[in-house]
Design brief:
Helices cover 42% and strands 17% of the residues. The protein is α/β, with parallel strands linked by helices and 266 residues long. The longest helix has 19 residues. The protein is globular. The two termini are 33 Å apart. Bound molecules: D-glutamic acid. D-glutamic acid binds next to helix 3.
Length: 266
């Protein structure tokens, strides 16, 4: 990996606002870095696009973003994209990449009932990549793949201050909860949008489970790649970009504030 300057620029990319759940963990670990957050809202939701469409969209777009923002590291904070494009990106660009893929290995390792559900977009649960993770790491667990049709859009709506009913969320997550000889005790959050709905998911879950959010592990991986912690070198710069060209509404701006270090908004 090329040498990283004292205050690196980290580009965090998602189809929308879900990548903020990864972004906030990286900021906690590296508050002195410069950040560019890119939401490809012009193409949201990725879960509704075909594999070929996502590759054709994301690979050149990341190239344009690298040319424009010269990041030292790029985080693809999107399972729906990462389960498809990481090899293409690493073959095409020399910048280091960190992806986000379903945390099947730790979930299966920690499940006591050996019954785990993977909650992702319809795209992510169909991927060969995801099936291979199960084949390699299920470790005797019975893994149920649950492709949620609208959960990412509901998370976006909630963050924008629109009402999202408990019933709508309960319907999306219901297939995760299997009862029988063994009952599901672990749910993998395999879409970066879903932790945005954590409070409501906890409220409507039919019984308590461990929800596995890989964001802290992704942040640690970013930290490892960047090397020893940098000293703070002044106010970090944060850019927030929507590919549609829109600027955040006042409601959304308020909702985004907790994801940023206070100094970033100063
Ligand atoms: N945040 C994304 C993920 O982690 C995808 C949501 C979507 O665009 O469908 O999969």
């Amino acid at each position: 990996m090329r040498s990283v300057p004292n205050a690196p620029t980290i580009l965090v990319f998602d189809s929308g606002l879900g990548g903020l759940t990864v972004f906030r963990e990286i900021v906690k670990l590296r508050p002195g870095a410069h950040y560019t957050y890119v939401a490809d809202d012009a193409y949201f939701p990725y879960g509704q696009h075909s594999e070929d469409e996502i590759i054709a969209r994301v690979v050149p777009l990341i190239g344009e973003l690298i040319a424009e923002h010269a990041p030292d590291l790029v985080v693809i904070a999107c399972n729906t994209a990462s389960t498809l494009v990481m090899t293409h990106l690493r073959e095409t660009y020399s910048v280091p990449f960190v992806g986000t893929v379903p945390a099947i290995k730790p979930a299966c390792a920690s499940s006591k009932t050996k019954r785990v559900s993977v909650l992702g977009t319809r795209g992510t649960v169909k991927r060969e990549y995801t099936k291979k993770l199960i084949a390699d790491f299920a470790a005797g667990c019975d893994v149920t793949l649950v492709g949620a049709e609208n959960l990412a859009s509901l998370a976006e709506a909630a963050l924008r201050g629109e009402p999202v009913s408990n019933e709508a969320i309960a319907a999306e997550i219901a297939p995760c909860f299997l009862n029988g000889d063994a009952r599901t005790d672990t749910v993998v959050l395999a879409c970066t949008h879903y932790p945005l709905l954590m409070d409501q998911m906890l409220a409507v879950a039919p019984w308590p489970v461990d929800w596995i959010d890989p964001a802290p592990a992704i942040a640690r991986r970013v930290g490892d790649l960047l090397g020893a912690a940098n000293g703070l070198t002044g106010t970090p710069e944060t850019r927030f970009i929507f590919t549609s060209g829109q600027s955040p509404s006042p409601i959304l701006s308020r909702a985004l504030a907790p994801f940023f270090d206070a100094r970033m908004l100063a």
